[in-house]
Amino acid sequence: MSNAATFKQLVEDLLVDVQYLPANDPLTFNDLCQFFCRFCGMVSSEIMSKLEEKGGYTFFVAGLCPQSGKLHGARFSLTQNSGRTVVTFDEVAQAEGEYVALGSGAERFDTLFDGQCAQTLKVLSTLNAVIDDATVDSVGGDIQYGSFDGGGRFQVSGVVRISVEEAFEDGRQYGPTARRSWRYRGFDIYDEWKIPGEKLWPSPGFIELKVPSNCDSKWKFIESCRKTLES
């Protein structure tokens, strides 16, 4: 969506050079959220006046509060008022184990998660289940994962999808065997990574996620077995 993409790009540029002016007042997470509200409203009002579309969206900001030294998260919402965009926010997931699900698959996620305490692998496994069971047609693709380190820096990680695959085709049995798919930002970066003479190897961090087999992973497993037999 043009509205969301333009704001994202503007904020990325602004944050490189933004300065906090009050010398005697400590910077807080709330101050940063108010900053985002003002600029998001300005961008959205300008774009929507030209595109004449709804253009509403929701976004999150999370990070280390300079005053409290703790991680905070906020959800931002856009509403229209007399031709201008009004942006508000509320803090989310303030207690240990809380989570926020959004989008078309949120209801299905909440049903499967069933009130569990939010822990990384539990959340990722449930998200994978929503993708795999195809109950919600608009939910699909690969999981993209990121987390904060001890210093409050956000880092994107890949996901190693580990499934036990077994298949039968034309009287031949393949497996059972553990199959790993290394996905980073939606791409299998190690798929057929066999470039002669290549001296550089992409090595982002990965988190391992053990999941059930699905139709896509089983088909890819059969294809890999065929290639092995033919080589």
List keywords for this structure.
231 residues; alpha+beta; five-stranded mixed sheet; elongated
Summarize the structure.
With 231 residues, this protein is α+β, with helices and mostly antiparallel strands.
User: Measured on Cα atoms, how large is the radius of gyration?
Assistant: 22 Å
Helical percentage: 25-40%
Task: Give start-end ranges of low-pLDDT stretches.
Answer: none
Shape: elongated
Please report the distance between the alpha carbons of the first and last residues. 45 Å
Largest sheet: 5 strands, mixed
Order of helices and strands: HHEEEHHEEEEEH
Structural class, from helix and strand content? alpha+beta
Q: Count the DSSP helices.
A: 5
Instruction: Provide the β-strand percentage band.
Output: 25-35%
Mean pLDDT: 85
Q: How many runs of DSSP E, i.e. beta strands?
A: 8
Fold topology:
Layout: H1 2-17, H2 29-51, E1 58-64, E2 71-81, E3 84-91, H3 106-113, H4 120-133, E4 145-148, E5 154-169, E6 172-184, E7 187-188, E8 206-210, H5 215-230
Parallel strand pairs: 5-8
Antiparallel strand pairs: 1-2, 2-3, 4-5, 5-6, 6-7
Helix pairs in contact: 1-2, 3-4
Could you characterize the architecture of this molecule?
The protein has 231 residues and is of the alpha+beta class. The protein has helices at 2-17, 29-51, 106-113, 120-133, 215-230, and strands at residues 58-64, 71-81, 84-91, 145-148, 154-169, 172-184, 187-188, 206-210. A hairpin with a 6-residue loop joins strand 1 (58-64) and strand 2 (71-81). Helix 3 (106-113) packs across helix 4. The longest helix has 23 residues, at 29-51. The chain is elongated, with a radius of gyration of 22 Å. The model has no long low-confidence stretch (mean pLDDT 85).
